[in-house]
Amino acid sequence: MVHYVRFLQPPRLIANAKRPRRPSLTALITITTDLADAFYPGDVQVHVALAQQDNVTSLGTVRWKSGMRCLRVDIQVALHTITYPARFFFTCCASLRMDSLQLGQLPDIVSAWTEDFCAEDDMRLDTDVIIRSFSIPNGQVLKIYEENGSKALNILELGAGCGIVGLVFGSIVPRSRTLLTDIDDDALRFAGINAMKCPRAQDSIREWRPLDWEDPQSFTLDGSLDFIVASDCIYNSDSIPHLVRTITELERRATELRDRVPGPKVVISTKVRHSSESIFFTLLKDHGFEQEKHTSIEMPDKYRQSTGQGLETVDVYIFKRNTSATTHSRGGNSNLDDRQTGNNDRRMQDTS
Hints:
It is a single chain. By secondary structure, this protein is an alpha/beta fold. Helices cover 16% and strands 34% of the residues. The protein has a seven-stranded mixed sheet, sandwiched between helices. Helix 3 runs parallel beside helix 4. The model is unreliable at 326-352 (pLDDT under 50).
C-alpha cells in the first residue's frame, strides 16, 4: 500500500530573533494512504531537504514512529546557503533521490515538495498546494499538484473531559485537527480511549494532551488554531481567571503562528448555574474579546414538558478578539487577579 507525506500545516520559515540569518523551517506533517483512511504503520526517518538548481542538501531528519498521526518539523535553515530559486521537500528516501515511477517499482512513501520560492521576502511558503515530483522512464520529470492540508480546521478544546465536543467535531469535519486538553489525568485517559474508538472524518487528526490553566505558558502550541472551545467550564468561579488567561495566551500565540489576523475564534457553551459565572464574560471583555454571536438551545426534557415546566437552556457564545483593543497587553501579563474570587490554588476538574 502506497502512503503519502502530507502537510497538515504547510512549511514556513519562522524568524529567529537571536539568529536572524538562521530561521526555523516548521511544518506539521502526516503520512497516510491516498484516502487518508490509515496512517503509516511503521517507524521511518523523514528527511527534510533543500533542492536548488541541480543540488540537493539535507537539512535534517525527524522520526515518524508507529502509532503516530502527525509529526512536527522544526529545523534551522542557513539563509546564506540558499541559491534561488529553491524549494523544500520531505522524503523517506535516505539518498534524497526524487521518487521514481517505473513499472513495478512504486515508492513505498511518496515525497512532498513545496513550490519554488525566489527571494528571502517570499519565504512564508504558506501555499495551498503540495507537489509530487516523479522521474519517469523517458528521463523527464513529472510534477503533480495537489491541494494540501493547509485549509484544515484546527480546534483546541479546553477542559475536554471525556472529549465529546472535540470528538464530534473531528467526526464530522474532514481534514480537521482536534486537540483535546485537560489537567485531569483520568479525563485525558478516557479522552484518548474515546479518540481511538470514535469514528473519524476523512483525513482528520486527533490528539490529547495535558494543559494547566494556571500555567498556560508551559503548554506547547505546535500549530495555529481556528477555534478555541470550552464546554461547561465556567461553573467554578475560582478557576475563571485562569481560564481567561489561558484563552488569551492561546489566542495570542495562535495568531502569531497564523502570521495574520483575525486570530482563532473562541466558542463557549454553558448552562448557567449561578450568578458568579458572569465574571467570565466581564474578564473576557476586559481582555479585548467581543461577542460575535449568541444563541440559546432548549434541552429536550419529556418530564418537564409533560408537567408544564420550562425547558432548561444551554447558551452558546462565539467571541473574537478586537485587534484594536488596548485594555490589556496581548502577552501573558494581565490584571485578571484583581477580579478573582476565592482560592487561587483550586484547579477546575471537568467531570463530564
